[in-house]
Write a sequence for this structure.
C-alpha cells in the first residue's frame, strides 16, 4: 500500500514547555526532543509509547495546534512552521485529527449534522442544501444512517460517536489523518468495527495515517511502519514486521515482551524493567533509558545515543548498535 | 492444585433502581472459586464484572443498588446474611480488593503510613504502634517500593501511579487474605509497569496461596494469568471453563467473537494484518434487556428459540459450561 512520494517530513521536531522552579530558576520540560520521521502517501505510521512519552504532543505540534519550539515540518514540501495564519488554514484542510475520547470531542449541544458540516462551512466549501447532501454522504461512508443527522451526541453509543469524529475528519478530503488513540476508549467488540472502517477509508481515499496508540496489538495490526517513543524521543523506527520480530532497542524489546498475549506460542520471554519512567523534569544524562536498561554500558550514562539507520530503514537510538 | 471450594456464588442478582427503571446489573451469576486458583472474569464495560466483585464484599453502592437475590458462601457462611460487624471482620482481612483506579482510591488527606496502618488497626488490634510501623515497612518492601520509611511519611500526590497501585496492593494483602479481588488492577498503568505489578500478584499467590479473582477486559492479561475464565455479557455468565479450553475451543458465539475481534499478537504476521471480524451492533442497555438470550440481537447463529427463552447451562467439557441454546 505504500506510495513513493513523501507526504510529511518531520525534522528534529522539538517542543519544550517552560516550567518555573522557584522564583528565579526556570526550566524546560522537553516533551518532544529531536523527533524526526517521514510519512509517505497512503502509509500508516504507528507511534507507540507509554503515557507521557510525547506521542500526543508530537501529533499536535505537527499540525501546529501547539507551536513547536524548534525543528522543521514539511507537508507536501511546504514548511508548515513558516506559514502565516491564513496559509496555515489552507494546509489544515489537508490534515485532520481524530481524537481519543468521542465523549469529550463532540459538542453535546450540536446536532450531528452541524458537527460534521462545520468544517465545510468554516472553509467555505459548501453550504445549505449542498452541505446537507455532503454530510449525509459522509455519514453513510462511515456507516451511520441519515436518521443520525438530527441526533445529538448523547443519543449515540461510543462507537457511533467515534464514527462521527471520523466523518468530521473526512469532510474536507484530507491527505493526512492524525488519529490519537482512536479506539482506546471503545469497548473491545466495537474497536474492531472502527479499526476496519479506518482501513477501508484508507484504501478508498488513499489516506495517510499517523496512528498513535499505546496498544501494541492495535498498532501492529494497522501500521506499515512503527515508531517507538520514550521520554520525548523516538528510540526505534522500522517496518512493522521488522520491528515486531526483530526489535533492537532494549526498551522496544521490554515493551513488546511486557504486553500480555492471548496465544501461548507468541509469548516472549518477559523482560521486567526495574523502576519507573523517570520524571521528564529531570531526565537522566546520556541515554534517557539507561537507568532501566538491562544492557547498560558505561557510555550510556555519558553520551546521548544517535538516532541512526542500521540497515534497510531500521532506525535505532542506542549505543549498542553504533 | 488444591481443589477445595472456598467461595460459592449462587444465583446472584444485583439491581439498581434508577428513574428510568430497574437496571439489572448482575443477572443470575453462578460460579465457584477454589483455593489457590486465579479466576479471570472478562467482559466489556457494563457487563457486571465489577458489580460481581463488589457484591462479594457487600460494597454495592447503596441505596440505589441492592443485592436482590442470591447466595455468596464463604467458609460455610452466607456472606449476604452476616450482620455488618461480622462482615467488617472479613472485609479487608480474609477477602480484600484492589480497586480499579489508583489515582482516586487513596485518600489525599492522610499519609501513606496512616492509610496502610489502618488495616492493622482494624484487623490486628493486638499490635502496638511500632509493630504496625514495622509491618508497614515490610509490606512496602514486599511490593518493591524503594525507601519504605520515607514513603510512609509521604502523601498520595507525591507518588506515581504505579507506586500508588503498589500501595493499594500492599494494603489489600496486608492481612494475607484468602481471596484477593483485583478489579482491573493495571488498567490505569503502562504496560511495563503492568508487567511488574502482575509479577508481584503472582509471587504473592505462590507465597500465601491466595485465590485471586482477576476482573479485566484485557484478554491477553486474562490468558496469561488465570487458571479458569468466566466470560460475562450483559449481567450474565455466557461461558466458563479452564483458560486454554475457553481460548482454543470457545463455544459461545460471543466468546468466539470477542477473541476474533481483537488485534491479536501472533507468530504469523499475515494473520495479524487480516481484517478483524467484528461483532455487529452494540452492548444492549441493561434497562431493556431482550427477553431471551441477551446476546441474540448481535448473534450470527441466532435461532427462533434464542428470542424466547433464557439459555440454560450446558456442559460442553470438563468444567466447561456454556449458556447458549445451540
Amino acid at each position: 500500500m505504500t506510495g513513493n512520494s513523501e507526504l510529511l517530513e518531520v525534522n528534529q521536531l522539538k517542543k519544550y514547555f517552560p516550567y518555573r522552579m522557584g522564583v528565579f530558576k526556570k526550566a524546560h520540560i522537553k516533551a518532544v526532543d529531536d523527533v524526526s520521521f517521514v510519512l509517505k502517501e497512503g502509509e500508516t505510521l504507528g507511534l507507540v509509547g507509554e503515557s507521557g512519552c510525547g506521542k500526543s504532543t508530537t501529533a499536535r505540534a505537527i499540525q501546529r495546534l501547539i507551536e513547536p519550539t524548534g525543528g522543521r515540518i514539511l507537508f507536501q514540501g511546504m514548511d508548515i512552521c513558516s506559514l502565516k495564519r491564513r496559509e496555515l488554514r489552507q494546509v489544515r484542510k489537508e490534515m485532520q485529527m481524530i481524537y481519543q475520547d468521542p465523549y469529550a470531542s463532540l459538542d453535546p449541544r450540536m446536532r450531528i449534522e452541524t458537527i460534521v458540516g462545520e468544517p465545510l462551512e468554516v472553509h467555505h466549501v459548501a453550504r445549505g442544501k449542498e452541505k446537507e447532501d455532503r454530510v449525509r454522504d459522509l455519514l453513510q461512508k462511515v456507516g451511520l444512517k441519515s436518521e443520525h443527522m438530527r441526533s445529538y451526541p448523547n443519543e449515540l453509543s461510543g462507537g457511533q460517536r467515534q464514527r462521527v469524529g471520523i466523518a468530521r475528519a473526512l469532510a474536507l478530503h484530507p491527505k493526512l489523518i492524525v488519529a490519537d488513540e482512536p479506539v482506546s476508549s471503545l469497548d473491545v467488540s466495537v474497536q474492531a468495527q472502527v479499526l476496519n472502517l479506518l482501513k477501508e477509508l484508507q484504501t478508498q481515499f488513499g489516506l495517510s495515517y499517523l496512528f498513535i496508540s499505546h496498544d501494541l496489538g492495535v498498532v501492529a495490526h494497522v501500521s506499515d511502519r512503527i515508531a517507538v517513543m520514550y521520554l520525548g524521543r523516538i528510540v526505534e523506527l522500522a517496518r512493522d514486521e521488522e520491528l515486531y520480530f526483530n526489535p533492537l532497542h532494549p526498551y522496544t524489546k521490554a515493551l513488546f515482551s511486557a504486553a500480555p498475549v492471548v496465544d501461548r506460542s507468541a509469548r516472549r520471554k518477559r523482560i521486567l524493567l526495574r523502576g519507573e519512567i523517570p520524571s521528564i523534569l529531570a531526565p537522566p544524562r546520556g541515554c534517557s533509558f539507561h537507568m532501566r536498561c538491562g544492557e547498560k554500558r558505561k557510555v550510556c550514562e555519558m553520551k546521548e545515543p544517535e538516532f541512526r539507520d542500521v540497515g534497510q530503514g531500521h532506525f535505532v537510538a542506542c549505543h549498542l548498535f553504533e | 492444585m488444591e481443589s477445595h471450594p472456598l467461595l460459592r456464588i449462587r444465583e446472584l442478582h444485583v439491581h439498581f433502581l434508577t428513574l428510568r427503571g430497574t437496571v439489572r446489573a448482575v443477572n443470575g451469576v453462578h460460579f465457584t472459586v477454589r483455593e489457590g486458583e486465579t479466576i479471570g472474569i472478562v467482559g466489556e464495560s457494563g457487563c457486571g464484572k465489577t458489580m460481581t466483585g463488589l457484591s462479594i464484599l457487600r460494597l454495592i453502592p447503596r441505596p440505589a443498588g441492592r443485592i436482590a437475590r442470591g447466595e455468596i458462601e464463604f467458609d460455610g457462611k452466607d456472606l449476604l446474611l452476616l450482620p455488618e460487624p461480622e462482615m467488617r471482620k472479613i472485609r479487608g482481612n480474609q477477602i480484600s480488593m484492589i480497586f480499579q483506579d489508583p489515582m482516586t482510591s487513596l485518600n489525599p488527606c492522610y499519609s501513606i503510613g496512616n492509610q496502610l496502618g489502618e488495616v492493622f488497626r482494624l484487623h490486628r488490634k493486638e499490635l502496638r504502634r511500632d509493630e504496625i510501623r514495622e509491618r508497614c515497612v515490610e509490606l512496602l518492601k514486599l511490593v518493591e517500593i524503594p525507601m519504605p520509611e520515607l514513603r510512609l511519611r509521604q502523601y498520595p500526590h507525591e507518588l506515581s501511579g504505579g507506586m500508588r497501585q503498589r500501595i493499594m496492593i500492599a494494603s489489600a494483602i496486608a492481612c494475607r487474605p484468602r481471596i484477593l479481588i483485583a478489579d482491573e488492577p493495571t488498567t490505569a498503568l503502562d504496560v511495563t509497569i503492568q508487567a511488574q505489578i502482575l509479577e508481584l500478584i503472582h509471587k504473592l499467590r505462590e507465597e500465601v496461596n491466595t485465590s485471586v479473582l482477576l476482573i479485566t477486559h484485557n484478554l491477553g492479561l486474562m490468558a496469561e494469568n488465570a487458571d479458569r475464565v468466566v466470560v460475562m455479557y450483559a449481567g450474565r455468565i455466557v461461558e466458563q471453563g479452564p483458560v486454554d479450553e475457553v481460548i482454543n475451543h470457545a463455544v459461545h458465539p460471543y466468546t468466539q467473537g470477542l477473541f476474533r475481534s481483537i488485534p491479536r499478537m501472533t507468530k504469523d504476521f499475515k494473520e495479524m494484518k487480516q481484517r478483524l471480524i467484528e461483532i455487529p451492533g452494540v452492548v444492549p442497555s441493561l434497562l431493556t434487556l431482550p427477553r431471551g438470550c441477551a446476546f441474540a440481537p448481535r448473534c450470527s447463529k441466532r435461532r427462533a428459540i434464542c428470542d424466547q427463552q433464557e439459555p440454560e447451562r450446558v456442559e460442553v467439557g470438563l468444567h466447561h459450561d456454556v449458556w447458549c441454546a445451540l
